[in-house]
Write a structure and sequence with these properties.
Structural class: alpha/beta
Strand order of the largest sheet: 1-2-3-4-5-6-7-8
CATH superfamily: Aldolase class I
Bound molecules: pyridoxine-5'-phosphate
CATH topology: TIM Barrel
Number of domains: 1
Helix content: 40-55%
CATH class: Alpha Beta
Largest sheet: 8 strands, parallel, barrel
Radius of gyration: 17 Å
Order of helices and strands: EHHEHEHEHEHEHHEHEHH
Distance between the termini: 10 Å
């Protein structure tokens, strides 16, 4: 039986990182988003951070206007971000942990510890029609908590797997992969839609893309970097090709 389509969400944050390095208007993340659409992205992902280090409020507004594919709005669970999400009502909201001093989203969200608070936080977002996803580690306790608070989707953090691969810690990489596979199946068995992302590259994408329960991958930093060498559209098309190959 053919497996369901595996969606590719292209994260354009780091186009904004390069733009902001000079404080001007280019490279333009909106142009990158439109090119990504043409290259076959099924969605665009953008993270509006509290410190606005890459994506800006105006970028989110622009994306809502120009995109033909859904916007996956990544944000921390703060009142400020909730207000912005409720104003724009993007197709999807993905809650991520955020620490000011971190370079990137380091771990998954601690759902189990903040179940009540998060349940109240996501309720209005769901009522507004946003598909709420929670970015978590491949951990049964967190997945169960995400399910209990009413999230429809979990996104599994693939960073530990990708880091172990990059540093040639192969036994650890394989353990991480087994954990991701088992937790994808577990989350799916609870009725959650399963996504995955963080740190994925051409070298690491296929084993994750092959998990039958995974419906969406969100990939950014590697693709924006690869675009320097081969252009954004070819970089995305190659990722798409590898995902399709893994899916068989
Ligand atoms: N998914 C989530 C929830 C993220 O926070 C990020 C990074 O912003 C990504 C996917 C994409 O990670 P990367 O840029 O390493 O591909």
């Amino acid at each position: 039986m053919p497996q369901p389509h595996l969606r590719l969400g292209v994260n354009i944050d780091h186009v904004a990182t390069v733009r902001n390095a000079r404080g001007g208007a280019y490279p333009d993340p909106l142009r990158a988003a439109k090119l990504a659409e043409e290259a076959g992205a099924d969605g665009i992902t953008a993270h509006l951070r509290e410190d606005r280090r890459h994506i800006s409020d105006a970028d989110i507004e622009g994306l809502m206007e120009v995109l033909s594919v859904p916007l996956n709005f990544e944000m921390a669970a703060t009142d400020e971000m909730q207000k912005i999400a409720l104003r724009h009502k993007p197709h999807a909201v993905c809650l991520v942990p955020e620490k000011r001093e971190e370079r990137t989203t380091e771990g998954g969200l601690e759902v189990a510890r903040e179940e009540n608070k998060l349940a109240h936080f996501i309720a209005p977002l769901r009522e507004a029609g946003c598909r709420v996803s929670i970015f978590i580690a491949a951990d049964m306790k967190q997945i169960e908590a995400a399910h209990r608070i009413g999230a429809e989707v979990i996104e599994l953090h693939t960073g530990a797997y990708c880091d172990a691969h990059a540093e040639a810690r192969l036994a650890e990489r394989d353990e991480e992969l087994v954990k991701l596979a088992e937790m994808s199946a577990f989350a799916h068995s609870l009725g959650l839609e399963v996504h995955a992302g963080h740190g994925l590259t051409y070298d690491t994408v296929k084993p994750v893309a092959a998990f039958p329960e995974v419906r969406e991958l969100n990939i950014g930093h590697f693709l924006i970097g690869e675009a320097i060498f081969r252009g954004l559209e070819p970089a995305i098309r190659e990722m798409r090709r590898l995902m399709d190959e893994a899916r068989g």
